[in-house]
Amino acid sequence: MSDITRDDVAHLARLARLAVSDEELDVFSSQIDAIVDTVSRVGEIPDDVPPTAQVVPQTNVLRRDVREPSLSNAAALSGAPAAEEGRFRVPRILGEGA
């Protein structure tokens, strides 16, 4: 274990201008100690272990790209409150200069 003490955490809190209570000093010192120990374990990994992006092999899960029938333009516009020149008509939200 690394030796992160309450005094170390209090010093860091002062440098960061953080108000930390005595209870928080106890909690933070144990948490920071655990983090430092975990990070230091990275150095224990043997050099012959290849870099890994995924632990579990992944395969392409996309469906085949098959052309299927779709709505006609008229059917798509049939439920629209307003249509114009084969498109949905919506209220203008931008000014003339935009």
UniProtKB/TrEMBL annotation:
<dbReference type="Pfam" id="PF02686">
    <property type="entry name" value="GatC"/>
</dbReference>
<keyword id="KW-0648">Protein biosynthesis</keyword>
<keyword id="KW-0067">ATP-binding</keyword>
<comment type="similarity">
    <text>Belongs to the GatC family.</text>
</comment>
<comment type="subunit">
    <text>Heterotrimer of A, B and C subunits.</text>
</comment>
<dbReference type="InterPro" id="IPR036113">
    <property type="entry name" value="Asp/Glu-ADT_sf_sub_c"/>
</dbReference>
<protein>
    <recommendedName>
        <fullName>Aspartyl/glutamyl-tRNA(Asn/Gln) amidotransferase subunit C</fullName>
        <ecNumber>6.3.5.-</ecNumber>
    </recommendedName>
</protein>
<keyword id="KW-0547">Nucleotide-binding</keyword>
<keyword id="KW-0436">Ligase</keyword>
<comment type="function">
    <text>Allows the formation of correctly charged Asn-tRNA(Asn) or Gln-tRNA(Gln) through the transamidation of misacylated Asp-tRNA(Asn) or Glu-tRNA(Gln) in organisms which lack either or both of asparaginyl-tRNA or glutaminyl-tRNA synthetases. The reaction takes place in the presence of glutamine and ATP through an activated phospho-Asp-tRNA(Asn) or phospho-Glu-tRNA(Gln).</text>
</comment>
<dbReference type="InterPro" id="IPR003837">
    <property type="entry name" value="GatC"/>
</dbReference>
